Amino acid sequence: MPEAVARDPVAYWAAVAGQIVYRGCLVIFWIVLNCCTIAFGVFVEPLWREKSHFRRLQFPGRIPVIAVALPILLAYAAYQTYLSFGLWHVILPFVAVAVSVVFFLSLFAVFNIIRRAVFKSPVQTIEQTGLRRET
Q1: Whole-angstrom Cα distance, residue 6 to residue 111?
Q2: How far is CA 108 from CA 94, 100, 101, 118, 120, in A?
Q3: Which residues make beta-bridge pairs with 58?
Q4: Which band of pLDDT confidence, cut at 50, 70 and 90, is reported for residue 101?
Q5: What confidence tier does 9 reach under pLDDT thresholds 50, 70, 90?
Q6: What is the mean pLDDT of residues 17-45?
Q7: Which pairing describes strands 58-59 and 63-64: parallel, antiparallel, or unpaired?
């Protein structure tokens, strides 16, 4: 019997149970993560290994799967949105983003013009301040 178990068996078995639960959660998370990323051409290496990475999957000819899969999935999502809700729900997000960008950029420009008109801060040269330049 190992010395750690002999000294405090409850703590030892609690640590073993915690490790089992931790590894079980890692496996579940890894499966769910891969189910979501494989469709986009990304494979997640097992999380319990040291230095696990996200790997980009490639077609023959070194073409990344994400370059082909993502446009297809986005087009399919737009088509399903069109079937479910109509054309406006497909076009409206793009229009809303463009309108909000124009609105906020113009608002930024107007506020900047107002700020410069209200809070005039004269730019002075060193000679105008009366200080000497250090050489």
Answers
A1: 73
A2: 21, 12, 10, 15, 18
A3: 64
A4: very high
A5: confident
A6: 90
A7: antiparallel
In the 8-state DSSP scheme, what is residue 122? -
Q: Whose CA is closest to 55, among 29, 46, 23, 69?
A: 46
Partners of residue 122 on adjacent β-strands: none
CA distance 37 to 44: 8
**H or E element that contains 98:** helix 87-118
Buried b (16+ CB within 10 A) or exposed e, 100-115: eeeeeeeeeeeeeeee
What is the rounded CA–CA span in Å between residue 58 and residue 64?
4
Q: Give the largest Cα separation in the chain, rounded.
A: 87
Per the listing, tokens 């330049």 go with 133
Tracing tokens 């999957």 back to the chain, one arrives at: 57
